[in-house]
Amino acid sequence: MQTVETQNEGLKRAYKLTITAADVEARIDAEVKKIAPQVQMPGFRPGKVPANLVRKMHKDAIHQDALNNTIQEGVQAAIADNNLRPATQPHIHMADGYELGKDADVDFHFEILPAIEAPSTDGLKLERLQVEASEAEVTTAVEKFAEGQKSFETAAKSYKVAAGDQAIIDFVGKVDGVAFEGGTGESMAVEIGSGQLIPGFEDQLIGMKANDERQIKVTFPDDYNAENLKGKDATFDIVCGEVKKPVETKIDDALATSLGLESLDKLNELMKGQVEQELNGLTRTHMKRQLLDQLAADHDFEVPPSMADAEFEQIWTQLQSEAQGEDDPDAARKEMEDEKDDYRDIAVRRVRLGLLLSEIGQANGVEVNQQEMNMLVQQAAQQYRPEDQQKFVEYLQENPMAAAQLRAPMFEDKVVDFLLEKANITDKKVTKEELEAAIEAEPETPKKSKKSAAKKKPAAKKTSEKKPAAKKAPAKKAETKKVPAKKAAAKKPAAKKAPAKKAAAKKK
Length: 508
Known about the structure:
With 508 residues, the protein is α+β, with helices and mostly antiparallel strands. Helices cover 43% and strands 18% of the residues. It is built from 14 helices and 11 strands. The protein has helices at 21-35, 51-57, 59-81, 135-148, 253-258, 264-298, 305-324, 329-338, 340-363, 370-381, 386-398, 400-422, 432-440, 451-456, and strands at 2-9, 12-19, 91-94, 104-111, 125-130, 151-154, 166-175, 178-191, 213-219, 233-247, 424-429. The strands form 3 sheets. Strands 6, 7, 8, 9 and 10 form a 5-stranded antiparallel sheet that branches. It has a 4-stranded antiparallel sheet with strand order 1-2-4-3. The protein has a two-stranded parallel sheet with strand order 5-11. Helix 7 (305-324) packs antiparallel against helix 8. The chain is extended, with a radius of gyration of 31 Å.
């Protein structure tokens, strides 16, 4: 087996691997001896089947395994002998026309991680903008919480449903006059103005009374989650069973005790803690931005193109999804195209910072321990159907790069925490508005025109240790769910699935 380097440009490496017929034959002989004791064949005692028969029986499979194993050994040897750190899985190609008994020529190429000297963690200077949880903010938080606890009571039969009310409806959805699968339901509670259903559905229920019947017309969004309904015009035959009016939730001790708390003071204390947690999160975001800006300003090295491309594709896909939800999607997409180069810069910056944080973490013994990794796996597995959760766990076990992707966000956070502990920090009291303005004023990329990047740039993703998965994981649950096909119980409207939920683009 012989390996020759054919490319050494920047972070790109390529090699030609020649595997002799003798190498493959030796591997096949070794494999035959290994499996022969387990092979059973009529007329022979277990483990006594002659090697030549074993070879004949399993010729193709043994040959393929021998060749694949030899190629993998050759690739790994080239990586080890040259002290390389691959940034991507090697792309392997074998010349056409290979036959058993002949030498095999294999080409493989990959990108490597740049050599980065772990930056010094001394001399970091950061400003910590601190906000105290004001009484007004706590009061607002309690009011919002109370609003989420609101209940409804049945209105008079002559009462017409209005915005903010709840209509209990039976419905049958049709496209071209034919009822479609999952478009039928009973006793579903619809809160008018909640925005839970596709545009136009809730508004057309306004004015209905108990026992009223009405047909409404809607158009399914182009990004609706059921392929057969995307962009389709539909009608829904509606029967209003009853109308319910919201009951004002009083903010008092009774509300607190209904939640298992001792008093309203305890509820206020609880909400104050949540407000403080939110404010502390904003403070940390601002400090992390400062930290990353300092690291980015002091380091400018080449990053693996494929990693930058993958990061850009994630950014671009997210932006396209968000543009679809804008009032003027075409204008939003035009603005994206105008700033495409800026977003490429963001992608490169993210990858570079991820590599820097990885080097800092490894140099200083920062790690995600096995217990923490088990927790991450369990949390991620919950996103999948119960029957697919074990497949997802096995997928991570078989794909180290996919596991590294899952580990990366926690690893990055731990490195950031390590650096924050080392930094020289000065505190400054500010208002929440000032803190939010400071965060918005910090563009993610150093170019001069960043009004859009500050306004709508994608959330900073965790890039350390990030590598593309080698193969697809099991399908996530909920991604393939369509409009409900089953009728829900009349007594439990809250558990109903809407006949046509809108597919809003996720904001990250």
